[in-house]
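Service request form, structural biology core

Requester: graduate student, group of Dr. S.
Request type: structure prediction, single chain
Budget code: on file
Notes: please return the result as structure tokens.

Sequence provided:
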Amino acid sequence: MIHKLEPLPYAYDALEPHIDAMTMKIHHTRHHQAYIDKLNAALQDHPKFQEFDVTTLLTHLKEVPEPIRPAVRNHGGGHANHSFFWPILKKEVPFSGEISKAITAAFGSYEKFQDNFKTAGVTLFGSGWTWLVVNNGALEIMTTANQDNPVSQRMTPILGIDVWEHAYYLKYQNRRPDYIDAFFNVINWEKVDELYQSAR
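Core staff response, request fulfilled:
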């Protein structure tokens, strides 16, 4: 399998003013593309592992040959994380569906969920991701460093935010908390609900 960059399901300016068009274009066409290019290069001499999609590679990371395992973990993770990220972004989608009931039950209210999710993202040292995952049927907030993905820990992500600086620095500079606040305006809760129901 040759991994390829899929087009975004919307225009680069579709998330304005919360996430700017230039950030989206650079993030998608340069950063995501670079992860794909480096993943394909790592797999070039390993035809058996070229047959698997990136989620399968990350789920079975210990089976990947040791010499290329770091590249698959990092660049495969970058490809998987960004492929997950783009479809969960959309403006003006109301917080609703089964996921809204589950979040309220798990965290007490949507506002408490926001506070916990934001705190996890703000306090994550360095680069990485903050996730809402389904773990043994329960909702949990977790973080991963760099481009690690929860599937490698047998958890199912249903929402995630990229807190690498390349995701927000053009508009928000070092103001990660402001970027996370803006993120809550562009969550595609319909997609998150779909992922949640599938994970159950």
